[in-house]
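A note from the maintainers: we've had questions about how concatenated examples are separated. There is no special marker in the raw files; a new sequence line simply starts the next protein. For clarity in this README we add a label.
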Amino acid sequence: MPRRKGAPEVNAGSMADIAFLLLIFFLVTTTIETDAGLDRMLPPIEPPEQDVVIKQKNIFTVNINRNGQLLVEDNLMEMKDLRKAATAFLENGADGSCTYCKGKKDPSSSDNPSKAIISLKNDRETKYSTYITVQNELVGAYNDLRNREAQRLYGRDFTKMEAEYLNPETPSSVRDDLKDKVKRIQDMFPQKLSEAETSTD
């Protein structure tokens, strides 16, 4: 009596190749989203050697409540007016030491761009979109002033100069040339944007 043949075997030798090809395919075609954040420089860990005294008039306070309303320097303000108010504060130049400032030199406002600080405080229930919009307006005030001075000194916008300087594909010779220019404009209007502790009430 002839022997019965067993169940046919499946050739699994190529399965590993197929799995490997699928893995490569998904690695190549899949895009990984990266979260965009806010560009902020954190304060140094070391405490300052001496206490720094800041005059109240050199602080521009911006509060956002849970309803998205702005309280700027204890006055209600529309979002569309925020950038103009911040710009006027930053270049006020009350002490007369700022030769490039075009402000009103109001003695009750900031002395100098290097001393001017913008303090932002928001409620815990503030909408994220409102918070980002306020941030954009405040940073926009700095960029407007920096662009103005970069145009005056170098004939081009600061934001474009900075983007080119920070681009890793920019040739080192160009970056070396831009380094001092970017730093000079940054020093003219240093970005001092402080975020106060979030309000919980």
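[label: protein 2]
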Amino acid sequence: MSLDGKVAIVTGSGRGLGLAYAQELARQGASVVVNDVDAQTAADAVASIQALGGRAASVVAPVGPTETAKQLVATAVETFGRLDILVTNAGVLRDTVLWKMSDEDFDTVINVHLRGTFTTVREAVLQMRAAGEGGRVICIGSPTGQRGNFGQTNYAAAKAGIVGMTRTWALELKRAGITANTVVPVAATAMTATVPYFAAAVQAETNGEPMPAFFRHDLGFGTADDVAGLIAFLGSDAAAGVTGQVIGVGGDRLQIWTHPEAALTAYREGGWTYDALVDAWPAEFAGTMQSVGERFPELPEEFKPAAS
């Protein structure tokens, strides 16, 4: 098994995508520390991994505080003897438009996604560097962090911040043999289940049927298991040369996202004054302005929700 002898932590792994990641890591031979805020959910996740013949332990605690990060790492080391892989998946949503978003809405999402990723990675890296055997840090991003999304100021900020941290960590951890990457999953989740555009795909999964090719191929939208293979790969020795990357995966599609680069570079002797920009913008710059938000093709007729 490709991860035989490895030990992984997966935050937010009681259900959904996180559980799929934990189960796949276990299938490939890793011992796994699962995490959830609900004790029964965590216990069920451990039982599901043990039913696969894997080894698992749990930490029931909210991600964000340093104390939780320390507990996760201590559990990995005390239970399984080491730590090789960290997957930072835990997250919450508090969606609303900017002018209705409260301080609590903003702080809750930032604390779990962004601060939780920071505190957990910091603690894991302390252990990995002390052990001197390298390691794998796999952070979970989102298309929203790459392109923005209506009603998700807090979530977009957190996911974009995670990408920025990952690129920095790839530089800082290189000498220690620790890789750091961000995975951008596109899959049927509790969140996408409420979006009418994805209704046919979600219904197919609920019915235990294959998702239509339009969703799997054209949209790169699939199941949690479609993402889990990439997580296991990035945790393996086969991915030792992969670091600082943002990799999208869903359905039949895998994408390596570009790092931000200038779309246009122009020079003007003396600098760009107000008057110069007014004159030059329409002809020189307007055509290279970048789009925002996700853009989806029109749904084929057979997948359109019935009119109410």
